[in-house]
Amino acid sequence: MPAFVCLIWFPAGTLRAQDTVRVGITYQPGVRPGLVVLPAPGLDSIQAIVARDLDFSDRFEVIALTQPSTGGGGSGTQPLNYAFYRTLGAGLAVELSPATGSFIRMRLYDLAAEKIRGEVTLPLERSGVGESRMAVHGLSDEIVRLAVGQIGSAATRMLFLNNEDKRIWRVDSDGAGLAPVSPAGVAAMSPAWSPDGGRIAYTQLSRDGGKPIVIQTLGSGTRTLLPLKATTQNITPAFSPDGRSLLFAQMSDAGVALYLVNVQDLCCVERVTGGRFAENFSPAYSPDGRRVVFVSTRAGGQQVYSMSADGTDQELLIPFDYGETGNSNAPEWSPDGTTIAFHREVRGAPQVWTYDLSGHRAKQLTSLGRNEDPSWAPDGRHLVFISDRTGRRQLFVLDTETNRTRQLMTPFSARLPAWSRRLVRSQ
């Protein structure tokens, strides 16, 4: 009896899907199996999105068909020609075909075992445009799960600051769906996602000099100000993993301290770090919510510290590398809890680094241009960051395993990216 998988797109609703028994290829880190996405008459837009998503996952060598396929299709009048696709170097094949009504069926073939590895049937808008694209990205992530048993990041979005109109914008993981999020005429900074993807937090730059923090619900557009004094300046908000609390930095004449606020009940603001004659900012929670990394200048330059979520047990985590590198900034915990991403000055220019918590090793990942503000994808292997390597600050995505980099082009300068958790998930 087949198991059932439910693909949910927040906040749109529930999709139905079916998964068959999986056999055949075992994924090995560093080895990318060849994969071909078969032609799908009438579903060309969906086929193109899926093929691009699987390429961007960096888990497959996606093989392009340069001429009409003669390999047959498993759901058509001809059986799939396994041997033909193996000659192209493929170990996997993805077939998309119309099903009953508005449903579309996806079959994943294991070409070596000559068997269907997995099957999913779900409702999809066949044009593959607008908001329906997110459900297609969810299908791509399901293919990654069926093929290699790992989480994908296609069904995600990035927030970032448009440096020209000072609004928070969003973009899909593949560079489509570019749109403003925060209101026109309201300058903003420091965007952050809630864990469920339904809300965002950001700093609003008020005309009276204050910098309140706003919680905005994406579905309705409702905006709520946190209960802070109107004239205070507050930056770098970060949601706790359960979405109930928010850490942020508050600026004063004496320094910058980290504060914690209950965003579920909009109350109970408390300070968790000292701020006298030092700056403490850019907090980020560990995946289990027990620890926090942040930046502090308490010992001179900007260094990365860690502490318990309640502010106790504060300690230097990533030491300043005197003589070799400069200030560190924008730390963020990887989804698996093993690594911290951050940027650090190297010969006067910021570069993206990672820090392995178990081995206590720092690794530089970029060197071309100025590269800063990394944010993890939910798959734990990709980072989005800002780089000026093409002459203007733009979004770039880096695969930390292969070092492959791709640009998400925007018609304006971008800053301060934040990658969401998955907005469509299997359950």
Structure description:
- The protein has 427 residues and is mostly beta strands.
- It folds into two domains: 3-148, 3-Layer(aba) Sandwich (Rossmann fold); 157-426, TolB, C-terminal domain (Neuraminidase), CATH 2.120.10.
- The chain has helices spanning 44-56, 82-87, 133-148; strands at 3-9, 13-19, 34-37, 61-62, 92-98, 103-110, 115-123, 157-162, 168-172, 179-180, 188-193, 199-204, 213-217, 223-225, 233-239, 245-252, 255-262, 267-271, 280-285, 291-296, 303-308, 315-318, 325-333, 339-346, 349-356, 361-364, 371-376, 382-387, 394-399, 405-408, 414-419, 424-426.
- The strands form eight sheets. Strands 4-3-5-6-7 form a five-stranded mixed sheet, with helices on one face. Strands 10-9-8-31 form a four-stranded antiparallel sheet, with no helix packed on it. It has a four-stranded antiparallel sheet with strand order 11-12-13-14, with no helix packed on it.
- Strand 24 (339-346) and strand 25 form a beta hairpin.
- The longest helix is centred in the N-terminal third of the chain and has 16 residues, at 133-148.
Keywords for this structure?
single chain; 427 residues; mainly beta; 5-stranded mixed beta sheet; 3 helices; 8% helix; disordered N terminus
Indicate the proportion of strand residues.
Answer: 35-45%
Give a short account of the largest sheet.
Answer: 5 strands, mixed
Shape: globular
Give me the count of strands. 32
Uncertain spans, ≥5 residues at pLDDT below 50? 1-29
In whole angstroms, the N-to-C terminal distance is 18 Å
Amount of helix: under 10%
Rg value:
23 Å
Reading off the top of the CATH hierarchy, the class of the largest domain is best stated as Mainly Beta
Structural category is mainly beta
Q: Which CATH architecture of the largest domain? A: 6 Propeller
Query: If strands are numbered along the chain, what order do they take across the biggest sheet?
Result: 4-3-5-6-7
- How many helices does DSSP assign? 3
Q: Mean pLDDT, rounded to whole units?
A: 89
CATH topology group of the largest domain: Neuraminidase
Number of domains: 2
CATH superfamily of the largest domain: TolB, C-terminal domain
